[in-house]
């Protein structure tokens, strides 16, 4: 039963539910009864234990019968009916504050259902689809494929017949919009209109399915679900780099990656055996959650909200269930318990969220070429060393001078070098992050971090042979850290930064005092405090050391002890990272310096630690190879070669950087993240720990499978999930017809309206997942699209009579073809195509088409919008930079999503602000000017120009009266231009502008505003 | 029937389309001709088929409301209640000492450590008006109209960071994606204006943490989104003609579109085309109306002076916006959201409050006087306040270079309300002697939202929209109530 039609559109009710209103056939539980109970009763008498009244549940037959609410076969004895029909306000159900009394028709249905035995059946969507038999109408000549058989059977039962086929140009325009999001070329339309080839339509479909534009168009629909955006959201809404994920989606769709594989890679590509870079990039799907970068937040709280979003999104996309309802309590209508919800979260909750450097082949090659040049130049450096004065050959003198200067340098440096010894901790403890010792003795941090992280490290000193006098902390870069580290800061502060507030050292017996400190580099982000080394032992948690701006490089901090430490026992080091954002270290190494022969203070060096280690070696033990390394280093720093090295420096600056993207990475086995049930869904109210599992009302994960993200992903696209096939084909249907066979693409639960064509939905669902070898579509979305667009149903004319409009305003019965306004991005892409400006480049980072600066100026930080120039200005709208807090205005006004939520169905509004945008937005006017220029170049006659403009935008040829209206308008504006009332120079922004050009610009602009231009019909 | 059921039973667009489809046969030619002949804003009115409804057309309320519209002066960043409304002499006594842990409990703070010392109030307080309401010396103009306002000292919220708390106050939820209060009202009762949006947004001062999500339509139809308006330049995005085009050229264009669209409507029969024709007509009316809207030359010098407004002067942006808000209210806009950023005083709360109060106190008070004088205060609900309060404890940080500031404090803060439906001259609620917790008549953010809806004749439990399987409400799933003590 369909709520919207219940009271006010009785005719539609009859139409959609022909059999039940008046027939005496027993009501169907699934179709007729369950929706009534779900809507009116389940909130208090349903699955949710916490809100259950009188211990009565009506979703469970045994309880309902036991409580005598329902006495099967005996309506008169069933308390349910008595309470519903009661005239006493205090007795009647539902209570007045909970809902309206049931209608007579509803009560009648319940009565007849009880009289017939009150049989319960499972909700249709939770029963796996079975391939239905084709109705006899399959033999009708109108029918082109099985879709039509089901549609036609339904129409026939309503006494309706399908509309005639749309004219060929309309058909071509429709299918081109649907498969590529772009309009066809007028020449292609003419060819198609005139051909007699019966295969012509099939061929066009094949060509469109194979075009790169197909992947771009359908990627946009998937990105709505993935809540893709190029910024983090919330207050600061800073840019993020995740476009490689968008590229992955486009490519996967163009390659027609089967939907099951498409799913597994996005949810758990990182866990596939030998995961490729591409499979890791795919896991960006669930990294599209927002990130709150506001200073002072609790980062784990917002991580929890991101998890909540992941569960809701997974539920909407693969289960078609409103799982989000069970965040706070057991679902009121669907059989998802509060624990189910958190068990499902647990399946997704065991990943770290690192950055991934995308080592693409193009960049790799460019880098290799530059690096090769660099090493050649480096090898040649000695040739540029200034020669010593003298009479010998220049080469000889050059070599002598180099040798002399290098030896002198070496001696000096050896005198300063300290024989640092790296300490390997025997114990690593923290408040939360997981520390791990790597082969090089460095310590690497993963897991969650907080606003106050404390690392407690224990180092044995008994292997040392001399007292120690200083400690060195190296902070090291790593590809998997934000901005390559060394810190783990990922919000508010600079990415890759850290903030070491305090470093405390102690032996078993006493606290170790520091006398002095130095660093190789120091700068703090956010705030104007110093980054002095001494800040880490001043006892003040709000001061510290940080290397902001030095991301991707090593730095060091050296602290001298007040007195030497004896080489025995243990050294405990406590590092405290405390700021208003999470900023602990990602990778670091601790070394100590032995007592020196002199009293000098040991200071931090710019020199690489490897070089210092060589310099500190016993001179006699240095090998030739080591000496060569030292000489190479000398050549790279000596002032003698400053000029010669400029070219090397310039080349290094030109090294192209790898793109980065956000990915999931399953946690190591020794650091699982626990998931709890949260009372009322609140972050601060964790209750018992839950085990990872799929909702208990569905078939469990296979016994052999580990309960983890990968198994969950595979389960979602397995036969164990009865929903995925129907939900997926329904979303596809919706894209073509405007409304799905099930109206709510993200809710197939018990409260959803039943499908308009249940057998058709099941037919498509079963076909979709049946392997190709067995005659199915094998999860191929291209094959599904082909099936849809080659149906007679799809090819019908969308013209509608007043009678039909009144009968079926939403076209649920499909007696006509689809007609609706195209998506925001397609609106602009039509104009780009028609004006000839469209740049056909596939993939890459986002671009910024022009828009008034005020749109982003209202966002936090008054962001600017530097419009792209050249080809980037005219790229498909899919590639427009998507800023969550200031969405591109011309798209937002046409209902494009902001990337803040998973969107399974966009609104399609029709508003005055859209009109203002199309009439007056300079971005569109720029394209109108280009279109007018093209028209003037293409033809010299008024009519020819008018037709040119019209056809670029509308494909079809204008009628006589349409073109004369355009010409009249052009003439009228031309007269005003000629009279000086309007000025061409002003309108076109150029002194050379002619009146005719201005008038044609006005025509192009006007036609761009026609309803038909931005409508698929 | 709930609001949502009404909506579902009578799909607005469907209804609109049918209406217009029928109404359309009166002939767009006539309409266009009338438009051509008319000139100026008032003329456009007559050119309109007033039976035609857009999704924001006025709709009946649940019950008769006292207020017809809202002007919400949102003080973004969170003003210090301890420097403005909530006088706590005890804090001066305790200055420099930490609060006992029993008071702090497990509260998380944004920047400070819980053992931070107390900071005494920076300003003097005095009683004002017949009501004897206590205000700090930073609000001399409000003091002059204090008998018209209801001060609430017992506000509390759930969130302690700006973006989430601002979103919570505006949309009832701490994460972006829900409809704003103005969108709910646009959806629920529509607009009384035929040529302006139902929900407009004005902005001055510093950046807004919650951003555009604060005036988003969320899952409601796009027609209900808040429309940012500016007091200079193009008041609404793209409302001005392209350069070189005059009004007549635009009218010619819209007439041409009308004729061509109409032909298509005849052939195709889709009422959506009629809705689009109608949208273009309203767009044209907005174009006519917009310049007049921001033309302050119609205002007397004494009015400008009362607000402290100075057209085009960025320094008086808030005052200009208050005046613009009154003009929007006069023109039937339902929800006028005026944001003023710059209240986030983590350091030098004394100087910060002094400066922000100077920018806002006079204009806010002038707005109340002006509305009252025009007889509009009785059906205009005016609200003043931020997203949370500020700590009784001091904020100081060497890394951030902060001293003598206050951190975020969700447990207690102050706001004021005035006008339609609100009991004037009262002070509601109390906090403890430290200003830390509410001890009497607590008002949760969602109680405030229920109160605002109530003043407009809407029952917050019935203003619902079905989305993702749930009946969503502005006021969320927990039980909340309009604050009876605040109601006139």
What are the SSEs and their pairings?
The complex is a heterodimer of chains A (1017) and B (488).
Chain A: H1 10-16, H2 29-40, H3 42-45, H4 61-66, H5 79-85, H6 104-115, H7 146-157, H8 168-180, H9 186-194, H10 200-210, H11 212-226, H12 243-254, H13 259-268, H14 277-282, H15 299-319, H16 338-348, E1 351-352, E2 355-358, H17 361-380, H18 394-416, E3 421-422, E4 427-430, E5 434-437, E6 443-446, E7 452-460, E8 468-475, E9 502-506, E10 511-512, E11 514-519, E12 555-565, E13 570-578, E14 587-594, H19 609-616, H20 624-637, H21 646-653, E15 659-662, E16 665-666, E17 676-678, E18 686-689, H22 709-716, H23 724-737, H24 758-769, H25 781-789, H26 802-807, E19 820-821, H27 824-834, H28 854-857, H29 889-892, H30 912-920, H31 922-938, H32 942-954, H33 960-978, H34 984-988, H35 995-1008, E20 1015-1016
Antiparallel strand pairs in A: 1-16, 2-15, 3-14, 4-7, 5-6, 6-14, 7-13, 8-12, 8-14, 9-10, 9-13, 11-12, 17-18, 19-20
Chain B: H1 3-9, H2 12-23, H3 28-37, H4 40-46, E1 69-75, H5 81-84, H6 89-94, H7 101-104, E2 125-128, E3 133-136, H8 140-144, E4 149-156, H9 162-171, H10 181-189, E5 199-204, E6 227-228, H11 247-268, H12 271-293, H13 301-307, H14 317-330, E7 335-340, H15 349-373, E8 380-385, E9 389-397, E10 402-409, E11 413-419, E12 426-428, E13 430-431, E14 438-440, E15 443-444, H16 445-455, E16 464-467, E17 470-473
Parallel strand pairs in B: 1-7, 1-8, 4-12, 4-15, 5-6, 5-7
Antiparallel strand pairs in B: 2-3, 4-11, 8-11, 9-10, 13-14, 16-17
Helix pairs in contact in B: 2-12, 3-11, 4-12, 11-12, 14-15
Description:
The complex is a heterodimer of chains A (1017) and B (488). With 1017 residues, chain A is of the alpha+beta class. In chain A, the strands form 6 sheets. In chain A, strands 3, 5, 6, 8, 11, 12 and 14 form a 7-stranded antiparallel beta sheet that branches. Chain A has a 5-stranded antiparallel beta sheet with strand order 4-7-13-9-10, with no helix packed on it. Chain A has a two-stranded antiparallel sheet with strand order 1-16. Chain A starts with 9 loop residues before the first helix and ends with a strand. The model of chain A is unreliable at 1-23 (pLDDT under 50). Chain B is α/β, with parallel strands linked by helices and 488 residues long. Chain B has 16 helices and 17 strands. In chain B, helix 3 packs antiparallel against helix 11 (247-268) and helix 11 packs antiparallel against helix 12. Chain B is globular, with a radius of gyration of 24 Å. At the A-B interface, helix 15, strand 19, helix 30, helix 33 and helix 34 of A face helix 1, helix 2, helix 9, strand 6 and helix 11 of B.
């Amino acid at each position: 039963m369909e709520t919207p039609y219940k009271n006010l559109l009785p005719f539609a009710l009859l139409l959609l539910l022909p059999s039940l209103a008046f027939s005496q056939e027993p009501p169907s539980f699934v179709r007729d009864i369950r929706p009534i109970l779900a809507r009116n009763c389940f909130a208090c008498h349903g699955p949710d234990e916490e809100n259950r009244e009188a211990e009565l549940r009506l979703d469970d037959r045994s309880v309902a019968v036991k409580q005598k609410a329902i006495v099967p076969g005996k309506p008169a004895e069933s308390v349910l009916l008595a309470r519903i029909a009661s005239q006493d306000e205090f007795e009647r159900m539902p209570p007045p504050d909970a809902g309206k009394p049931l209608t007579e028709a509803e009560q009648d249905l319940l009565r007849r259902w009880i009289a017939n035995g009150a049989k319960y059946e499972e909700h249709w969507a939770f029963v796996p689809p079975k391939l239905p038999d084709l109705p006899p109408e399959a033999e009708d000549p109108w029918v082109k494929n099985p879709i039509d058989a089901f549609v036609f059977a339904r129409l026939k039962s309503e006494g309706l017949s399908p509309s005639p086929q749309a004219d060929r140009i309309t058909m071509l325009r429709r299918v081109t919009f649907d498969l590529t999001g772009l309009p066809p070329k007028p020449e292609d339309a003419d060819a198609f209109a005139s051909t007699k080839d019966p295969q012509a339509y099939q061929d066009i479909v094949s060509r469109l399915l194979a075009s790169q534009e197909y992947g771009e168009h359908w990627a946009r629909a998937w990105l709505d679900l993935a809540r893709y955006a190029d910024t983090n959201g919330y207050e600061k809404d800073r840019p993020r780099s995740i476009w490689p994920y968008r590229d992955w989606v486009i490519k996967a769709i163009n390659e027609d990656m089967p939907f099951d594989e498409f799913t597994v890679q996005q949810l758990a590509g990182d866990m596939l055996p030998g995961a490729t870079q591409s499979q890791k990039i795919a896991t960006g799907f669930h990294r599209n959650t927002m990130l709150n970068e506001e200073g002072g937040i609790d980062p784990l709280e917002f991580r929890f909200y991101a998890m909540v979003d992941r569960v809701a999104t997974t539920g909407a996309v693969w289960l078609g269930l409103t799982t989000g309802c069970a965040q706070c309590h057991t679902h009121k209508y669907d059989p998802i318990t509060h624990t189910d919800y958190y068990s499902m979260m647990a399946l997704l909750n065991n990943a770290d969220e690192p950055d991934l450097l995308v080592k693409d082949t193009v960049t790799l090659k460019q880098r290799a070429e530059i690096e090769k040049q660099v090493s050649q130049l480096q090898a040649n450096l000695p040739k540029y060393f200034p020669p010593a004065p003298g009479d010998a050959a220049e080469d000889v003198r050059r070599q002598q001078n180099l040798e002399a200067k290098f030896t002198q340098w070496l001696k000096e440096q050896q005198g300063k070098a300290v024989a640092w010894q790296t300490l390997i901790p025997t114990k690593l403890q923290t408040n939360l992050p997981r520390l791990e010792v790597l082969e090089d003795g460095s310590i690497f941090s993963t897991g969650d971090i907080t606003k106050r992280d404390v690392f407690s490290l224990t180092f044995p000193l008994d292997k040392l042979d001399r007292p120690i006098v200083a400690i060195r902390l190296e902070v090291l870069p790593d590809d998997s850290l934000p901005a390559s580290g060394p810190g783990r800061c990922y919000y508010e502060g600079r990415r890759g930064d850290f903030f070491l507030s305090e470093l405390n050292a102690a032996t078993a017996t006493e606290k170790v005092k520091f006398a002095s400190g130095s660093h190789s580099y120091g700068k703090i982000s956010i705030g104007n405090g110093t980054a002095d080394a001494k800040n880490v032992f001043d006892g003040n948690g709000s001061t510290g050391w940080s290397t902001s701006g030095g991301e991707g490089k090593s730095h060091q901090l050296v602290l001298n002890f007040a007195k030497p430490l004896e080489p025995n026992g243990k050294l405990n080091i406590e590092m405290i990272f405390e700021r208003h954002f999470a900023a602990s270290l990602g990778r670091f190494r601790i070394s100590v310096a032995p007592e020196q022969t002199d009293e000098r203070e040991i200071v931090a060096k710019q020199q690489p630690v490897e070089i210092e280690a060589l310099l500190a070696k016993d001179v006699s033990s240095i090998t030739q190879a080591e000496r060569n390394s030292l000489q190479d280093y000398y050549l790279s720093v000596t002032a003698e070669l400053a000029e010669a090295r400029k070219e090397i420096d310039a080349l290094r600056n030109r090294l192209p950087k790898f793109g980065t993207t956000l990915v999931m990475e399953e946690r190591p086995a020794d650091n699982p993240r626990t998931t709890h049930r949260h009372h009322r869904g609140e972050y601060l109210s964790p209750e018992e720990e839950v085990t990872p599992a799929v909702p208990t009302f569905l078939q469990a994960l296979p016994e052999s499978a580990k309960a983890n993200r990968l198994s969950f992903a595979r389960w979602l696209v397995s036969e164990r999930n009865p929903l995925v096939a129907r939900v997926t084909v329904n979303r596809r249907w919706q894209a073509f017809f405007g409304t799905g066979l099930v109206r709510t693409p993200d809710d197939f639960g018990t409260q959803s309206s039943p499908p308009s064509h249940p057998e058709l939905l099941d037919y498509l669902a079963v076909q979709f997942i049946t392997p190709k070898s067995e005659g199915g579509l094998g999860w191929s979305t291209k094959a599904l699209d082909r099936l849809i667009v080659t149906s007679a149903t799809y090819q019908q004319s969308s013209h509608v009579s007043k009678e039909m409009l009144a009968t079926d305003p939403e076209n649920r019965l499909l007696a006509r073809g689809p007609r609706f306004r195209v998506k925001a991005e397609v609106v602009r892409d039509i104009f780009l195509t028609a004006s000839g400006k469209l740049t056909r480049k596939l993939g890459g980072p986002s671009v910024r088409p022009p828009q008034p600066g005020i749109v982003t100026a209202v966002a936090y930080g008054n962001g600017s919008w530097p419009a792209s120039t050249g080809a980037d200005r005219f790229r498909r709208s899919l590639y427009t930079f998507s800023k969550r807090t200031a969405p591109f205005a011309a798209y937002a006004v046409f209902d494009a999503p902001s990337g803040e939520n998973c969107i399974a169905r966009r609104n399609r509004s029709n508003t005055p602000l859209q009109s203002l945008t199309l009439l007056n937005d300079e971005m569109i006017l720029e394209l109108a000017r280009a279109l007018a220029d093209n028209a003037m170049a293409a033809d010299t006659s008024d009519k020819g120009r008018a037709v040119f403009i019209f056809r670029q935008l509308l494909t079809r040829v204008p009628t006589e009266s349409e073109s004369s209206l355009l010409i009249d308008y052009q003439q009228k504006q031309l007269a005003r231009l000629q009279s000086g009332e309007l000025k061409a120079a002003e309108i076109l922004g150029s002194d050379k502008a002619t009146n005719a050009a201005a008038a044609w610009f006005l025509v192009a602009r006007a036609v761009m505003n026609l309803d038909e231009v931005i409508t698929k019909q | 029937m709930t609001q949502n059921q009404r909506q579902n039973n009578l799909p607005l667009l469907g209804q609109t389309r049918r209406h217009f489809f029928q109404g359309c046969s009166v002939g767009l030619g006539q309409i266009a001709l009338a438009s051509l002949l008319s000139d100026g804003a008032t003329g456009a009115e007559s050119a309109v088929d007033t039976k035609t409804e857009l999704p924001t057309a006025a709709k009946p309320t649940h019950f008769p409301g006292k207020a017809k519209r809202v002007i919400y002066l949102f003080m973004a960043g969170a003003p210090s209640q301890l420097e403005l409304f909530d006088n706590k002499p005890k804090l001066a006594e305790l200055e420099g000492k930490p609060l006992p842990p029993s008071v702090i409990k497990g509260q998380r703070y944004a920047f400070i450590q819980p053992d931070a010392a107390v900071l005494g109030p920076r300003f003097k307080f005095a009683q004002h008006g017949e009501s004897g309401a206590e205000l700090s010396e930073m609000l001399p103009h409000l003091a002059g109209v204090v008998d018209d306002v209801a001060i609430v000292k017992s506000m509390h919220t759930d969130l302690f960071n700006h973006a989430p708390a601002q979103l919570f106050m505006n949309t009832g939820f701490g994460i972006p994606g829900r409809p704003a209060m103005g969108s709910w009202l646009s959806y629920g009762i529509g607009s009384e204006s035929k040529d302006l949006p139902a929900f407009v947004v004005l902005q001055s001062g510093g950046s807004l943490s919650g951003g555009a999500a604060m005036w988003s339509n969320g899952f409601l139809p796009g027609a209900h989104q808040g429309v940012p308006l500016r007091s200079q330049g193009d008041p609404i995005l793209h409302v001005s003609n392209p350069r070189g085009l005059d009004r007549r050229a635009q009218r010619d264009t819209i007439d041409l579109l009308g004729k061509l669209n109409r032909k298509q409507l005849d052939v195709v029969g889709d009422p959506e085309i009629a809705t689009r024709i109608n949208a273009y007509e309203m767009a044209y009316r907005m174009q006519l109306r917009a310049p007049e809207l921001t033309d302050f030359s119609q205002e007397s010098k004494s009015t400008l002076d009362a607000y402290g407004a100075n057209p085009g002067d960025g320094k008086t942006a808030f005052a200009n916006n208050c005046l613009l808000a009154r003009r929007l209210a006069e023109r039937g806009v339902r929800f006028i959201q005026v944001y003023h950023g710059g209240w986030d005083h983590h350091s030098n709360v004394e100087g910060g409050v002094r400066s922000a109060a100077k920018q806002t106190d006079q204009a806010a008070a002038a707005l109340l006087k002006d509305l009252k004088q025009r007889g509009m205060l009785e059906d205009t609900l005016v609200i003043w306040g931020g997203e949370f309060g500020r700590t009784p404890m001091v904020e100081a940080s060497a890394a951030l270079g902060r001293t003598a500031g206050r951190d975020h404090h969700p447990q207690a803060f102050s706001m004021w309300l005035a006008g339609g439906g609100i009991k004037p001259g009262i002070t509601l609620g109390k906090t403890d002697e430290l200003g830390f917790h509410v001890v009497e008549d607590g008002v949760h953010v969602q109680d405030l939202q229920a109160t605002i809806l109530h003043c407009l004749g809407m029952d917050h439990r019935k203003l619902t929209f079905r989305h993702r399987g749930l009946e969503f409400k502005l006021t969320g799933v927990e039980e909340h109530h309009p604050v009876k003590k605040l109601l006139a």
